[in-house]
Amino acid sequence: xxxxxxxxxxxxxxxxxxxxxxxxxxxxxxxxxxxxxxxxxxxxxxxxxxxxxxxxxxxxxxxxxxxxxxxxxxxxxxxxxxxxxxxxxxxxxxxxxxxxxxxxxxxxxxxxxxxxxxxxxxxxxxxxxxxxxxxxxxxxxxxxxxxxxxxxxxxxxxxxxxxxxxxxxxxxxxxxxxxxxxxxxxxxxxxxxxxxxxxxxxxxxxxxxxxxxxxxxxxxxxxxxxxxxxxxxxxxxxxxxxxxxxxxxxxxxxxxxxxxxxxxxxxxxxxxxxxxxxxxxxxxxxxxxxxxxxxxxxxxxxxxxxxxxxxxxxxxxxxxxxxxxxxxxx
Length: 330
What we know:
Helix 4 runs parallel beside helix 5 (226-238). The termini are far apart. The protein has helices spanning 2-116, 131-140, 163-171, 189-206, 226-238, 254-260, 264-268; strands at residues 119-124, 146-150, 175-180, 213-218, 242-247, 271-274, 299-306, 315-320. The chain is rod-shaped and about 185 Å long. It has seven helices and eight strands. The chain folds into two domains: 1-116; 120-326, Glycosidases (TIM Barrel, Alpha-Beta Barrel), CATH 3.20.20. An eight-stranded mixed beta barrel has the order 1-2-3-4-5-6-7-8. The longest helix is centred in the first third of the chain and has 115 residues, at 2-116.
């Protein structure tokens, strides 16, 4: 019985020892796997973190590159905008310079036209032109290119030109400037029309060709308005003659005021023969530079610069070459 009990106790002891060993080994293996798994997990986490960090760094680098790129692009845009603005400013300045140069060239051209255009010296007189009168002028002043004469007899004022005088002047290669002086109240449209028709009748009686200018004489003390001047122009032009006006066109004159009140087209197509400013009587060779003053919007072709010479009873004049086609030539 004791042996059986002793064997049983020993067997149980061995059994529990084996079981303990088995449990210990199993526990150790489980712990080892857990540690290993934890290590792998840590490594994975570390790798994931490193990967994420790497991605963050790459993203940061990309963002930085984008930022730098955007900055560079912005700087390039700013630089391009500045360059474009500078280019536009250069083009605007160049265009302004070109416009200024063109204006200067136009002004210079106009001045050069005046300076280089041939000038003609002439006289005008209220007296009849015969051999004695002609010789007086030639001997004392020079040979005139133009001679101003009045149409129609105006008793006590002027002797009207006739066909014999016309022939004499043409024989001496002198162009005739025709003047109408039969009005002393230059106002009103109806009066302008009537006097224009009278001037045309006188011109036709003398055989004046179409296209020749008929100059209305407006003395400084005459009342004048634009209505008369407009009507004069319209009737003269419709008769195929050229409208002209003689007078003192200083800045304060009523004649200049009336002229500037006319229609633009009328102003631009009227020939002006001005008696302003006044110089002094000279010979042909000593005539002053051509410097007339008159309406800006006119065909300012004539300048009576000297009044009432002591010899020969004449006034002295300078004319631009453009007037020649409106003078009566042979």
